[in-house]
Design brief:
The chain is mainly alpha-helical and 169 residues long. The chain has a single domain (2-168), classed as Arp2/3 complex 21 kDa subunit ARPC3 (Orthogonal Bundle), CATH 1.10.1760.20. The protein is 73% helix and 2% strand. A two-stranded antiparallel ribbon has the order 1-2. Strand 1 and strand 2 form a beta hairpin. Helix 2 (39-50) runs parallel beside helix 8 and helix 3 runs antiparallel to helix 5. The longest helix has 26 residues, at 109-134. The chain starts with a helix and ends with a helix.
Length: 169
């Protein structure tokens, strides 16, 4: 019976976080070539709430977008988005959710904060590398375009996720 309850909880949380990540994609600041969105806040929160199972809604979100459901930033969709300049960030959300989730399986605040920092580093790194490749620009330029503008905002989102996580996790 406990197993069934756990599965139902994972399903309910998965649907909720897919919807939250999609809604967060609409809350954006259009910064070319990569907009600033609230998706990352919800990816981190998925890790906090769902632990290692946060991979499920995040991967499902990416899959739904790849299947042309308009869930990516400002209603964009399709494999073309994943092959474009923002694709690395979106794919990077998947391992980032896993890292944050594994960190939140630990009780130590140091592990949890470290996990949130590592999660941000993962999707930013994946995004910068893919941006560099997809736009045929040097990696340093990809970092300047795809990481530097996001550091302050992602730090604030990680801090917000940590604060919310103290209440809900």
């Amino acid at each position: 019976m406990v197993y069934m309850k756990h599965r139902a909880q994972i399903l309910a949380y998965s649907g909720t976080f897919v919807a939250l990540i999609a809604a967060g994609s609409w809350i954006s600041i259009p910064l070319p070539p990569v907009p600033i969105t609230l998706q990352t806040l919800f990816v981190l929160l998925a890790g906090i709430v769902m632990k290692r199972y946060a991979v499920i809604p995040v991967a499902l979100y990416v899959l739904l977008g790849a299947m042309s459901l308009p869930v990516f930033h400002n209603g964009t969709a399709g494999v073309g988005v994943l092959l474009g300049p923002t694709g690395g960030f979106l794919i990077g959300f998947i391992p980032a959710a896993l890292i944050a989730g594994l960190a939140y399986e630990q009780e130590s605040p140091k592990w949890r904060i470290g996990g949130l920092i590592a999660a941000c580093a993962i999707y930013l790194s994946a995004g910068a590398v893919w941006l560099s490749y997809s736009a045929s620009i040097p990696l340093l330029q990809g970092i300047l375009i795809g990481v530097a503008p996001f550091i302050i905002g992602d730090t604030l989102k990680a801090a917000a996720a940590y604060t919310i996580g103290k209440r809900v996790a």
